[in-house]
Design brief:
There is one protein chain. This protein is α+β, with helices and mostly antiparallel strands. It is 50% helix and 12% strand. The protein contains 16 helices and 12 strands. A 5-stranded antiparallel beta sheet has the order 1-2-3-7-6, with helices on one face. Strands 8-10-11 form a 3-stranded antiparallel beta sheet.
Length: 409
């Protein structure tokens, strides 16, 4: 294989055989079942099984956006994902796929096969909430945040890790798609004609634009911890408990990871919960929407409890007393709310929309989109006056119920 070669279903077996770390995990002296399953925007993904039941997943980065070959993309993102995954695995192996191998010549990661899990967004779209997953991810964010911060790492090691995880190209994508493009005229943007007035109202809201500008600045400059960077419901696997296996939640696709504001990962999920609730309401399931709107509090509560439990082990308590912890908790919560609003708005207006809303009939989509935009604005502008996640969730619930068009049976 040359550096520029791309894996195919036909070449995967030979590739696995030549990688000692993989040949030790899966049989290479017999036939392999290989299926390409990548359905995202950026990568090739292959699930590989041998005839004895062992399996793994290969993920190879492409030199362009998969859905748009004219849009170039650095392949080095796979090295950054490997670093994030390896680091997060050391902090919280329970909530990420195991990393088996990384081939930096061909930009291929080999990771644990989680085919017995389901993508959380797909499950939510089908009406299955898996409410336990929010708290599990809250604990994941707390553990990875603490153990990659100056509180959990030696200062020299923390700075080396921050330098190694610089991710300029993918950070720029987030900076543009989340914080800039939805608020200007841009080819990536598209909404239903009926929602154009809603978008215009957001763009005319100077208070909102100021908060978005500050949020973008903090995203670009606040290097608090090694964050996942793209932690939405489409990058979380869930599995309910059964007779064969325990309940499980795993965060995957961390190629957007870098040292950024801890609250960004929390906000990304929170914003997607808002979108899922709007879908449930549009489809006439108010009870399920209420259940989904309890997830932000579950996510936040588990994060806060876990971070507090780790605080006594901080590396330096000389000036980092408990009053510092309280200030940090307030900052994380407010960051989470502003990023939740920004992520929700971006998924309605900009590139790479959420299937939760896009798969609705246009009659229902109009009101759902309007509700998400207005609720996202409320999270951003009211997060200081309503200083608990529960209060903000109640406010967004009221907005959605007033705005979302419901399915008529």
């Amino acid at each position: 294989m040359t550096d520029s070669s791309q894996l195919t279903v036909d070449t995967v077996a030979a590739y696995v055989a030549q990688r000692p770390a993989l040949a030790a995990r899966i049989r290479t002296d017999g036939p392999l079942d290989v299926v390409e399953v990548g359905d995202g925007n950026l990568n090739l993904v292959f699930i590989v099984h041998d005839d004895s039941g062992s399996s793994l997943v290969l993920k190879q980065s492409l030199p362009h956006v998969r859905t748009d070959p004219s849009w170039p993309m650095t392949r080095e993102r796979s090295a950054r994902e490997a670093l994030v995954l390896r680091t997060h695995e050391s902090a919280d192996a329970q909530h990420v796929p195991a990393l088996y191998d990384f081939d930096d010549s061909n930009y291929v990661l080999a990771i644990e096969n989680l085919s017995d899990h389901s993508v959380w967004r797909s499950e939510l779209n089908e009406g299955r909430v898996h409410g336990f997953a929010a708290a599990e991810i809250g604990r994941y964010v707390a553990r990875t945040a603490f153990h990659t911060s100056v509180f959990g790492l030696d200062p020299l090691e923390q700075k080396k890790l921050a330098a190694a995880s610089i991710n300029p190209e993918l950070c720029e994508i987030t900076e543009d798609l989340v914080f800039t493009e939805p608020y200007i005229e841009h080819p990536h943007n598209a909404v239903l004609p009926a929602n154009e007035a809603d978008v215009a109202a957001l763009r005319a809201d100077r208070a909102l634009l100021a908060e978005i500008g500050i949020a973008k600045y903090r995203f670009m400059t606040s290097a608090q911890s090694l964050i996942h960077g793209d932690l939405h419901t489409g990058s979380v696997f869930v599995r309910d408990a059964s007779d064969e296996a325990s309940a499980s939640v795993r965060a995957f696709d961390s190629e957007f990871g870098f040292f950024g504001p801890t609250g960004f990962d929390l906000g990304a999920l929170w914003g997607n919960f808002l979108i899922a609730a709007a879908r449930a309401l549009a489809l006439g399931s108010g009870e399920r929407a209420s259940e989904i709107l309890e997830l932000p509090a579950s996510l936040w509560g588990a994060f806060e409890a876990e971070f507090r439990s780790l605080w006594p082990s901080r590396r330096d308590d000389r000036v980092w007393g408990d009053d510092v912890l309280e200030a940090l908790i307030r900052e994380f919560r407010q960051d989470a709310a502003v990023y939740a609003g920004a992520k929700a708005i971006r998924r309605i207006i900009g590139f790479a929309k959420a299937s939760d809303i896009e798969t609705l009939d246009p009659v229902l989509r109009e009101g759902a989109a309007r509700g998400v935009l207005r609720a996202g604005r409320a999270l951003i502008l009211e997060r200081k006056a309503l200083d608990t996640v529960e209060a903000l969730s109640a406010e967004t619930a009221a907005i959605l119920r007033e705005t979302v068009t419901r399915f008529e049976f």
